Amino acid sequence: MARNEAERYASVADFAADLRRFLAHEPVTAGPPSTYYLLRKFVRRHRVPVAAAALVVLSLVLGTVVSTKLYHDARASAAEAQQHLEDFWRLADMLDLEELETTEKELWPTSPARLEEHERWLSRAERLLERRPLHEQAIASLEASLAGEASAMSAEQRLGAQFLVQRLKNHVDNLRALAAEDGALHRMQQRTAFARTVHQRTIEDRQHDWDRAIAAVDASHRYGSWHLQPTLGLVPLGPDPDSGLEEFAHLQSGRVPVRDAAGHLEIGDDTAIVLVLVPGGDVAIGSQSTDPDAPHHDPFRQPIEDECETVHGDSFLIGKYELTQGQVQALGEQVQALGRPGSSNFGDETYTAR
């Protein structure tokens, strides 16, 4: 029915073919077909495959959406778990530092026998100090969150963040104190170095001095049969020119003093503690109220007091001078350990009688 003859069906057969195509839901030749028209005809002819393909595409789209949602949820959960893990390690660092501060006071005496404990202490302290920049970064991040996102944080979250910031600041301050020039790390480094070298400095390098001191004690009638042995941490100084008693320097407490031309020790604020080896002997202790002319008479003695008796004591070391401020500073916590039961300030080796 087109006005232009060239656009009409050339024959009845062409018209019949178009009718067959129409009935078969195929595009007809009458008129220029649009893309939509061609697509609609294709879908009409292939309903099942197209529907299946559409279902697959829809599944893929939904799967992508769900996967993306799950991915973001997983990332959020992972970030939250990582935050909890970091908080755990921060707390662990705080507790570890507190334990180190306590342990430092207990690691006496400093001797080769405790060298491994000293080295473990230093290793733990160094690991804590390596993590200090991480704590400082956490403080900066939390403070930025408190300043910039206050409206997005609940009151509980804000209080928690403020508490954590304060604890981290205290921890960082304690780490700075640990690494300070007068801090525990420096003291433990010195003590560890001492433990590594004390045997050589007081036994091996002083063997000649020990041989002389041992021979002098063995030859002296005042010390009787008591025998001197080399003692870790002590340096023989020879006899006092006035008393003739053997003297020793406690190496860890300061510089080993020397004698002047007259044989007297030259003592200063930085010199080591000087110990005098006092001979043992018999001594009467207690009191008696029966004989006024006998020793230890006490007319007011009570019955519950011990009777006067004679006891024997071995040779012992006693400080020759009062401690100087330099010696107290050099010894630190060891001064407090002097009165602890079972404590020894010269290592595991001790004077013994033979």
Textual characterization of the structure:
The chain is built from ten helices and six strands; from the N terminus they run ααααααααββββββαα. By secondary structure, it is of the alpha+beta class. The strands form two sheets. The protein has a four-stranded antiparallel sheet with strand order 1-2-3-6. The longest helix is centred in the first third of the chain and has 60 residues, at 47-106.
What distinguishing features does this structure have?
354 residues, alpha+beta, 4-stranded antiparallel sheet, 10 helices, disordered C terminus
Task: Produce a short descriptive summary.
The chain is α+β, with helices and mostly antiparallel strands.
Calculate Rg over CA atoms.
47 Å
State the shape. Answer: rod-shaped
User: How much helix, percentage-wise, in residues?
Assistant: 40-55%
Protein structure class: alpha+beta
Beta content? 5-15%
The end-to-end distance, rounded to whole angstroms, is 140 Å
What's the layout of helices and strands?
Blueprint: H1 12-23, H2 35-45, H3 47-106, H4 115-130, H5 132-148, H6 155-179, H7 184-204, H8 207-219, E1 234-239, E2 246-250, E3 273-278, E4 281-285, E5 309-313, E6 316-319, H9 325-331, H10 334-337
Antiparallel strand pairs: 1-2, 2-3, 3-6, 4-5
